[in-house]
Amino acid sequence: MADDHLSPPLAPQADDAAGPSHPPPAAPGAGAAGEAGIGAPGTLLEDPSGMTPGDVAGAAQAAAESHKSQQAQKAASAVWAPLSTPTFRMLWLIWMAANTCMWMNDVAAAWLMTSLTTSPVLVALVQSASTLPVFLLGLPSGALADILDRRRYFIVTQFWVAAVALVLCLAVLSGRMTAHILLALTFANGIGLAMRWPVFSALIPELVPKHHLPSAMALNAVAMNASRIIGPLVAGALIASLGSAWVFVLNAALSIVSGFVLIRWKRKHHENPLGRERLPSAMRVGLQFVKESPRMHAVLARTVAFFLQSTAVMALLPLTAQRLHGPAADGGGANTFTLLLASMGAGAIVGALFLPRLRQAFAKERLVLLGAAVQGLATLIVALAPNVYVAVPAMMLAGMALISTANTLGVSAQMALPNWVRARGMSIYQMSIMGGTAAGAALWGQVASLLSVQASLMLAAAFGLLSMLAVQRLIRDRQIEEDLSPSKAIKRPVVDVPPEAGRVVVTIEYHIDPARAAEFRALMQESRRSRMRQGALSWHLLHSMSHPERYVEQITDESWTEHLRRFDRVTAADVALRDRKLAFHQGKEPPLVQRYFADTQ
After folding, report:
1. What are phi and psi for residue 550, nearest 5 degrees?
2. Which residues, in sequence order, are CB contacts of 102 under 8 Å at separation 6+?
3. Which of 30, 100, 165, 283 has the fewest Cβ atoms nearer than 10 Å?
């Protein structure tokens, strides 16, 4: 390495070794008096000196009941609160239309394939062609949604889906559709879906206040489950009356209208003065952030565990419908299957209305565990149900458990991600859902083939609760929500010498009391996670052999531009961490910060 090309020992604002202090956060209990003390709903304001003890007790009880009633009313109305925001309402309607189109397309494509071929493999591949792009393109699409204008990117996805639907329609009407062309176009439609989901998830926190985020995500789940009912019904009616081609016509029309509505949306996109990130680097940083985030570890582990279990009832639902004997004319066939599927969607919609109250009554970890337990119970009832009258309420219960658990996990993922990496992080979260679902379908399908459908469902019910208990014990969620709001407290370094090509190495020298060395080392592990989440290539903590009080933090960045990007990614939590590190440093001068260019020759 060369000597420090850039500057002499830097002033306090260089890197994060020193600089303006960040005000400490409020104590966890701060504000409690304002919520439950004098002047809060349900408190006693009259002079109690002339009241009997019975009067005081009765008034206190009445006040408490009044307060609970007001809280319940707030919880009941909170789920609809995000719709009062015009932009969110507009995007929510687009999301509803997009998911309706997705279900219509899946139904029409599956039905069309049965008229093109008798091969069970090709019929099954329709579903694979629809979902495979999520696995292949989940992270790249999330990275693009983070580095491009999200509004324009969303518009492109809408017109992409519309174009695919138009090609499908023309191929059907012209009589040139084949099984292989249908698979290719279904895969192309899946590309649009894979691109659309991360950008929509990343836009939600921009549109609603933080306290409305759980309700906004619950409303998105309502839209998805309502479309699960509406889409197949509309597609079935069109196929029966006009033919499959008109389903694709309607898909194209809805997608085009949604695209033009998005064009009218005036969202400001702030270009990064450092330019756009390169896609490979953006993908690396996204994966690195999730890898170094304990909160995301906890969310992803719980997501995989839950969907590994919950997919059993969906994967085996057609076989369950064949076993049941209800009012359907086909004696437990397609009509019963549709009824059970719609029951689950209806249960999810009902469950969304109770989510605010559930979040008030249970902590996140307990709510996730409760959701897994209820899902297991519902699966067990479906396995043992003698008829459709027992299975339908159980499917509704499964839908309620699914939405409450998925919403809790989705909100936790959103809270663990700063805006600059949100789409990448949410795409990885979506991939964990798809991975758990795919693995679960294969696992419980294999168990059903070896034993029976009922045995497979009963084992899934028991496995789900035990696996969630194990995950919560082994991978703890500290329930600490960091302040991930952007901070400008740490300024970019200013250089006089033009930067060279190649990697940049930063060293920060601390002088630490040897008696506090163990405590400092533990804190520096948090610093390592913070640097790596911001995009550093590597991190090391060096300890001087001749001066035991001297520690050097060494960070390597991919380039000078990527080094500067780390300053744009600093959050309030990072500034608070910087202040904690500075509290260990001894000496009048701040820690010495130096930068080097790595010799690439």
Report:
1. -100, 125
2. 193, 227, 231
3. 30
One-letter amino acid at 337 equals F
Query: Can you read off the two tokens belonging to residue 144?
Result: 């693009």
pLDDT in tens, 47-66: 333 444 444 444 445 544 44
For residue 407 the two structure tokens come to: 């919403």
Q: How far apart are CA 399 and CA 397, in angstroms?
A: 5
For residue 465, give Cα distances in angstroms to 33, 227, 411.
39, 29, 21
Q: How far apart are CA 510 and CA 541, in angstroms?
A: 10
347: Cβ–Cβ under 8 A, 6 or more apart, which residues? 395, 396, 397, 398, 399, 400, 403
Gap between the Cα atoms of 168 and 441, Å rounded: 29
End-to-end CA distance of the chain: 10
Contact between residue 520 and residue 512 where contact means Cβ atoms under 8 Å apart: yes
What SS3 class is residue 504? strand
Structure tokens at 490: 């740490």
- b/e code 43-59 from CB counts within 10 Å (16+ = b): eeeeeeeeeeeeeeeee
Q: Which amino acid is at 398?
A: A
Contact in structure between 414 and 204 (CB atoms under 8 Å): yes
Joined together, the tokens standing for residue 20 give 């303006």
- pTM over the 0.85 mark: no
Average pLDDT, the chain: 79
Q: What's the CA gap between 128 and 109, in Å, rounded?
A: 12
